Amino acid sequence: MNDSLLRACCVIAAAALAASPYWAEIRAAAERAAKAVRANGGGVMRWGAVALLLAVASGVQLPRLPKMPSVSAPTVNVETPSVEMQTKVAGIARALAGANPAERAIWASVWEKAAVVVAAPEGKEPVFTDSRSLRGFTVLSLDIAWRRLGGIQPGTMPGLREAVEAVMSEAVGLDVKPVDPEMKRRYVEACRAIAWAGIGRG
């Protein structure tokens, strides 16, 4: 197995917490997770990544870092997705109907930034080499921004897990596959549609 998951985790951790006193803890946790995954093989890797994505999206309590000061939610401008994608993310919009404006802004921001990162041109050594690395990146992105910075309590938005699962599973799939331009396109399109749904446009 390659190090794609670890590299993906480090990318988002560095982007979100480079100036944070918790960076060392984030990096250590990512390294421990990657080592555990290598030791348990591909089958566990595949389903474990999916389970983590669903857990983060739905509000299952994951290990948390020390509480950080609250931050103001940014204003997020998200492009309108196709009619087809609007239909696919309608369940996410319904699940987030009770979210306040700050929560909506944080949700939209993390998904929009995930799209920007994945859409960016790769360097000499690609970070996202397979679908597993995309899932790991998504999990850590949500855990940092939605849980850590947003402080969203587990289980407060019923139906969100299932709605996110449906959209992301269609974009990336459940099997471990190489990331090609088409998968990247689907992932970016899905992320931006999920962001759009989060700001009350769905």
Provide structural commentary.
The chain has helices at 4-17, 23-58, 83-88, 90-95, 101-119, 131-149, 160-172, 181-201. It is an all-alpha fold. The chain has one domain (4-63, 75-201). α2 (23-58) crosses α7. It contains 8 helices and no strands.
Characteristic terms for this protein:
single chain; 202 residues; mainly alpha; 8 helices
Order of helices and strands: HHHHHHHH
Number of domains: 1
Number of DSSP strand runs = 0
Mean pLDDT: 72
Runs in which pLDDT lies below 50 for 5 or more consecutive residues are 13-27, 42-63, 65-71
Radius of gyration: 16 Å
Helix share, percent:
55-70%
Shape: globular
Based on secondary structure, the structural category is mainly alpha
The N- and C-terminal alpha carbons lie at a distance of 39 Å
Q: Report on the biggest sheet.
A: none
What's the helix count?
8
Share in β-strands: under 5%
Quick structural gist:
The chain is an all-alpha fold. Helix content is 66%, strand content 0%.
